[in-house]
Each structure stands twice: as C-alpha cells, then as structure tokens.
Design a protein that fits this description.
By secondary structure, the chain is mostly helical. It has 13 helices and three strands. Helix 3 crosses helix 7, helix 5 crosses helix 7 and helix 6 packs across helix 10.
Amino acid sequence: MKIIADTNIWYGLGQDEELYKKTKDLPIVPSFVNIHELSKSENLIDKEELCRNAIRMLFRFQKNVIYQPPFIYLAQLHQEYAFDPAEEIGQWLNFTSKFAKGHSIDPSKREVFKKEVEAIRGDLKDVANIFNEEAEKIRAKILSKKDHKNIDTYQITAGFLNFCVEKSTKETCDLEDFDLDNIELLMKTLDYFFKSLETSQMKVQANDWYDFAILTYVQPGDKYWTREKRWLRLIKEAGCEDYLYEE
C-alpha cells in the first residue's frame, strides 16, 4: 500500500510537527505533481518559509517518491516507457534541494519567476475555459439531467486519458487493452467530474488539472490523502470513499 498525498498535505505536514510525528512511518508518497506545484508556486516568493517547510517534508519521505509525471506513470502501468528523472526534471530536483537547504530565489530573478508562474497558471485557465465552454454546449442540449447522469460514458473518459497518455509519451504509448480497474479511483472520479460539469453550474478551475492528475498514482489497495473539500466530495459521490486516507 502507498498513500498518495495532495500538495496541501505537504504544506500541512510542514506546519504541524505533531501531524508529522504521527505519520512519519507511513508510506506517504511525494510525487511529480507535488514537486511541480511546489517548485512553480508563487509561495516560493510570497510565503517562503511555508513553501520551504513543505519541500523539506518531500525530502523526509524521499524514499517513496514517484518522479514520473502522471500520464507517463500511467503509460508505464501498461507498457515499458523510459523516463530518466535526472535528465527530465533534474533542474527542478536540484532547485528544490537547494531551496530546502535555505537558498532563496535571487531577488533579481523574482519578476521573471513570477511571470513564469503566471504563464503556467494562464495556460491552465485557458484549458479550463475550453472545457467549461464545451460543458455549457452539452448542458444546453440535455433534456433530463437524471437520464444524462445514467449514460455510460466510461469509454469516453478512458478515451480522454488515452489522449493524455499519447501526448505525454509523444505518441509512443496508449491504453489499448489496459485494465481500467487498475485506475479505478481516477476513472470513476473523473467520469463523475465530467458529468457534474455537464449537469450543474460547476466550473473547471485551473488547479483541477493537478487535483485529478494526481489520482493517477492511486491503485487498488492504496489511499489518497487530501484536504480539498471539492475533491473529497467528488470522490465520495463517485463511490470511491474507501480510497480516502482519514487523518
């Protein structure tokens, strides 16, 4: 069993010594998603010590780390695909290591860094807007929300994940014949998420991409640890409450 931790958990562990003592021997897993969020966060400048303590927690659980991006990890569940952390994300790892040891972003480079963070956030918002626009078009055509919720869209959701895998691996991997039960939490929650978009006023938010992608790392028998109320609700309503780690 492994416990996949959302990035808000690493912030929590960094602030709460008692929580760390309580959980320090558990198989809590830092992941690429956590590394990316923490190394590309405005908190590195605006809330430096908060971010530093969270990054230090990643290193305390380093033996459990998953370096692969979520859809490369998913591809590797199905077939061989080479991924060298030192080559692919070595700069991030080096940066987080230095930051954990007390280094800070050079004041002369802070504005450039902020612009990079804003660009990433802008890209996520742009994609979110595209999904929200499509959801509105579908919502306008729905005659019965109840009937729409009962439509089997599992293969459509699987097709979306297959697209993500193909793009992440430069068209060298796909999910053909992959057993979707191996990613039950991701599949059921994402499928429910899409239907909720289409049958309610819920909107895709920029951070949702991190929040759903991290579910890729959770397999049957694993636990997912988050404090995000939105995703706790979605996971429970999707029928996957058993995957949640309870503090």
